[in-house]
Amino acid sequence: MPRVFEGGVSGEGKKFAIVVSQFNQTITHRLLDGAVECFQRHGSNIDQDVDVFYCPGAFEIPEVAAKITLTNAYDAVVCLGAIIRGETPHFEYIARECARGVSVVARERNIPLLFGVLTTDTFEQAMERAGGSVGNKGWDAALSAITMANLYAQLNNKSTRN
Question: Would 142 disulfide with which of 35, 37, 48, 50, CB 3.0-4.6 Å?
Answer without folding.
Answer: 35
